[in-house]
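> agent: user asked for a holo structure of the chain below bound to nicotinamide-adenine-dinucleotide. Plan: (1) validate sequence alphabet, (2) canonicalize SMILES, (3) run complex prediction with ligand conditioning, (4) return tokens. Step 1... ok. Step 2... ok. Step 3 dispatched.
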Amino acid sequence: MTRPDAQPRASHFVDGAYLEDGAGTPIPVRYPATGETVATVHAATRAVIDRALDSATLAQADWAATDPSERGRILRRAADLIRARNRELSELETLDTGKPLQETLVADAASGADALEYFGGLAVDQTGTSMSFGADWAYTIRRPLGVCAGIGAWNYPTQIACWKAAPALATGNAMVFKPSEATPLCALKLAEILVEAGLPAGLFNVVQGMGEVGAALSTDPRVAKVTLTGSVPTGRKVHAAAAERMKHVTMELGGKSPFIVFPDADLDDAVSAAINANFYSSGQVCSNGTRVFLHGDIAQDFTDRLIARTRNARIGDPLDEATDFGPMTTEAQMQTVLRHLDTARAEGATVALGGHRIDRPGWWIEPTVLTGLTDDMTCVREEIFGPVLSILTFEDEDEVIARANATEFGLSAGLFTRDLARAHRVVARLQAGTCWINQYNLTPAGLPFGGSKASGIGRENARAAMDHFTEIQSVYVGMTPVEAAY
Ligand SMILES: NC(=O)c1ccc[n+]([C@@H]2O[C@H](COP(=O)([O-])OP(=O)(O)OC[C@H]3O[C@@H](n4cnc5c(N)ncnc54)[C@H](O)[C@@H]3O)[C@@H](O)[C@H]2O)c1
């Protein structure tokens, strides 16, 4: 496969144009399928961060006063441009993350375009309330927060940037976005496309860098809100920094979600969903259903079908559309997953499939199925963020609900059953921000997405995100003479 050129014109995108400052620490961008360096960017210096925040502050005031229908038109034009360039953007996403082109063509830029289109449509529909107090009355207005900092993880660089930018911009905010240092390329393309669609300069700036740049943004007085997609430990730090300065936050963090299969489930569907919920993006999906609870009656049958089908995964060059399983996005993440597999073996897990690094250049791990597990094992308790599916068995509905909820995380949950009364009864007792019944990991723009417990605060997508990027201004209107005691 010929590899497209990944080197961006410059590291940052600020005030409507690419910007370079070679004084920043170099960040090599390595193609996970081979380990080769395909581009280099530089971390933002203090000067770059200041320019990004100053230009965003200046641009936001006019943008907040812009007719919302015009804001919406620009976002919808950006959605059209993304769709027209889907292949080019998907190839870049594949180079950035290592995810197979087969996935990136349908799930990344495409999901970003959906968000821009959805919030573009909703921009005009930001309503308040009105109420009366005798002859007096009052109304509320939803106002933008100002400059928002977006900080991204490395598993969905385009989607994360769009899911944050679209509701922020639709509601009249500006955003300074810092992509993950592991995947710095795709957000630059979004910035370029938004300007081409007519977004005024300064409203969506991209600055590169490691955690320190994220920390500089989330503590800066010019920033009104921080929206982070990342791990729980990073979320704790960013949330604490924001709380100190009374900033708004949205936290999209990690998970260890339960995936429950009752004995009356359509087993082929359930196996398909378990494959998607564990091996898509080589398992690097926050909402993955990694604790697969199987009812004892179907556990063996399910496991046999799962293993037989997973053996068919085509592992190879991610730029080849026939490939359906790719590498880990970073070498560090591959090492983390390998450490988890060593711990699982040491704690007595049975490796029913896979379990090893794949012997080829780059950072590959076999699709892995673990059995013989108990709830206290590390591989069942901790987020692995790799292609590792853990099988547990259960006998009883109350038992599985209690075990599903026995975790600090609460991002997602899924269940498979033909008994819809049971499905709704169980969902109502699951501690998870997003639940799927007879499906898994579908996240349309109109459905709120986010976690409860340690998995996050706030929601992305849907009207809920519009609320999280605005605050209420209450206006009391006096209609009668004002009385005073003296
Ligand atoms: N809930 C969701 O929507 C969602 C989606 C994707 C990924 N995730 C989670 O993200 C994690 C994987 O991504 P990751 O390894 O890039 O996460 P991470 O927490 O290591 O990094 C996330 C981002 O935070 C930045 N960062 C690090 N320290 C910071 C600090 N002190 N202040 C400000 N920013 C800082 C990083 O540079 C990066 O851009 C997993 O836990 C996964 O579950 C969650």
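> agent: step 4 complete. Summary for user: The CA atoms of residues 49 and 207 lie 7 Å apart. The first strand starts at residue 12 and ends at 14.
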